[in-house]
Amino acid sequence: MAPSSADLILVAYDGSENAQRAIRYAGHFLSAGRALVVTAWEPLARQAARISGLSGVMQPGWVPDIQQEDAALTDAKAVNAEGVRLAEEAGLQADGRCVETETTVWAAIVDAADELDAAIIVTGTRGATGVRALLHSSVADQVLKHCHRPVLIVPPNEER
């Protein structure tokens, strides 16, 4: 059963150490107690097309086997199940959902929050600074810039 939107915490989860930390903070600081752990994924065919386009080399068309589940979705389901388990360990009543990216990961997260009318979005961040941050802004930064609801961004642990 999906949580009601009035008390829904949407947790963006990609399996990283920073995402795990964000879940622990959500369980500790947010009292709603209900969470939907969302893992964004991109089909392998789209990944291959995007990467070949970036390389500037034409690649032959690849048609995935539609009778088998996309390997990227299989991986996303495993990552999402881990996030749900961590959310429950953090004291949240959690459900999980994998959302396919149509354009970007941040857009998939914002769209899911809008669809579910989430009260807040929780996400971790890499904490990139300097030139690295200028060249590649984080998903968390883009969620914050494009979302019209509260966002809790949990920075990385300093003890790495």
From TrEMBL:
This is UspA domain-containing protein. It holds the Pfam family Usp. Coiled coil: none annotated. It comes from the Bacteria. The lineage of its organism: Bacteria, Bacillati, Actinomycetota, Actinomycetes, Mycobacteriales. CDD domains: USP_At3g01520-like (cd23659). Belongs to the universal stress protein A family. Residues 9-155 form the UspA domain.
